[in-house]
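User: Can you recover a sequence for this backbone? Please restate the input before giving your answer.

Assistant: Of course. Working from this structure:
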């Protein structure tokens, strides 16, 4: 495969948004929980605050995760620091906070777990999110130890990453509305392609393998879907169902 640090030499199941469905998404508790279950790879989303602090957060709006109003790109870190993201997951997670990228990477280093970092810039943040994230990776030392995989569905973000950190392992998040041609995956020269399981076919996987790309299946909701993509010879899969689909499922 084209990737400079292949997932093939490690586990092939990735815990989605750190803790899957059994811990707060994009949280330090989620990373620890995944590691306790034996996972060596965790995925998480990263967005920037208005003052350029990278935070683990899926949606630009804060209300779905914290119940607080506002957009992450329009708020300063001091305004969102301390917001609770764990109450909906039970008493043990009350008080769990939105973590910074630095905190998440430090936790990954401590637990020897590989981060799969999905960069989700708001419009106009594409260069900044790459520069800031790479700087933090270098400060934490992740670029030399656990071989982070940096992914995005933004072509501009991935192009910026290729220019700023050409040795970084890059992944394209294939939007389920795009065709193979529209995705632009060949021009982006990504090592891995993340593809929704409903779009995966044996022919598509074979085509991407011939072009030296690894294929990582996403949107895996149960073991039947996992078995299906495994039969199509994907290289890895991402799932939130980490209680049913364990780290050594295949």
């Amino acid at each position: 495969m084209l990737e400079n640090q292949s997932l093939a030499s490690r586990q092939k199941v990735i815990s989605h948004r750190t803790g899957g469905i059994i811990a707060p998404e994009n949280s330090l508790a989620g990373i620890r929980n995944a590691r306790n279950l034996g996972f060596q790879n965790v995925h998480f989303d990263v967005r920037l605050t208005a003052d350029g602090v990278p935070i683990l957060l899926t949606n630009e709006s804060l209300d779905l995760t914290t119940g607080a109003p506002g957009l992450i790109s329009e708020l300063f870190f001091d305004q969102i620091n301390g917001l609770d993201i764990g109450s909906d997951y039970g008493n043990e997670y009350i008080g769990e906070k939105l973590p910074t990228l630095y905190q998440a990477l430090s936790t990954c280093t401590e637990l020897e777990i590989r981060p799969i970092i999905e960069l989700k810039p708001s419009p106009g943040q594409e260069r900044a999110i790459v520069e800031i994230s790479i700087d933090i990776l270098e400060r934490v030392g992740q670029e030399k130890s656990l071989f982070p995989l940096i992914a995005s569905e933004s072509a501009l973000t991935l192009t910026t990453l290729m220019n700023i950190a050409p040795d970084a392992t890059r992944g394209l998040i294939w939007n389920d509305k795009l065709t193979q041609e529209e995705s632009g995956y060949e021009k982006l020269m990504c090592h891995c392609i993340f593809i929704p399981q409903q779009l995966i076919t044996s022919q598509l996987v074979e085509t991407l393998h011939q072009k030296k790309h690894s294929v990582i299946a996403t949107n895996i909701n149960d073991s039947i879907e996992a078995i299906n993509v495994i039969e199509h010879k994907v290289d890895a899969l991402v799932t939130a169902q980490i209680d049913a689909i364990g780290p050594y499922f295949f």
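That completes the design. The longest helix spans residues 126-140.
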